[in-house]
Design brief:
This protein has 306 residues and is an alpha/beta fold. The protein is built from twelve helices and ten strands.
Amino acid sequence: MTYSVMHMIELMGDDFPLLLNSVLNRIPLLVTGQDVELVDDISESLTMLCPHHHKLVFWRDFTSESELLSVWEEEKHNHEVSRTVVCGLSSNLRLAIERITRFTSWILAIPIGASVLGIQVDEELMQTVIHRVLQHTQNCGILRVTSPSSISFSLVEPCVSSLEVEKKIVSKILTRKRQSLERIRRLLRKSLRGLHVSKHIMNAILKLDDESEKLTHDVFDEEVSNYVHAARRAVTLLSRIRLARELGASTTLTERNLYEAIGWEGGNMSDLIRFIRAEWHEDFSDCVKSGTLSGLGAWVDSMWGA
């Protein structure tokens, strides 16, 4: 079965914002467990957490690191091309270990206890993969799958994000889903008023499990898209700030100025800068500062035609 966004939120509980943050920031994720089919299923399902990314499956869409590096190189030079998320399934684990050294934005299935193309997958191999991943990335996520209903997530290194954005996304999903389902049920009850239907039939009509999953999926995609588009607007603005600095202007942008300009509320500025770095390979940390900077607000407004 495919794990829906709603299913993952319910299963992961308080761990879900951290998992979502890791996927959005393209931190490599290792999905480990003893059930090969389940591990593969969850690995593919996790790609839904970055709906704005194009999914590539190792050994189906590409077979060498050079092909993947070409994709990343294009990302660096063209902000308009689709970003990628890579899924590596259990059957190709050995090939991935042999051929790949950089696992940024990978979701890699590691079936503990299985034999894959002649190698026995165990905890020792798992540690080898973690070491390989950390040679080129600052962190790595481990999703341990004990059973279809028991999943835990952690990072090898401490999380540096506030997770405010991710928690806000989850909160909005739950609130909007509840409100929408309440409206639907209210209308259904109203339409059935006066009819003599059994309690069993009434419950069947008011059972909205499928609608609940679809609502969760739609709201999730919308909220992630809102964040990505706000970040993209920030890239446009901060690129101009950088250009102004290169031309000799000693200007930086305050958090308040930036959020007002891009139409975004909440979240930590350092989290946004990290997301931009992961998504568009740009580091604008020198273009933003805390506190108040007089005189820049009007200039920012003029850039957007205000």
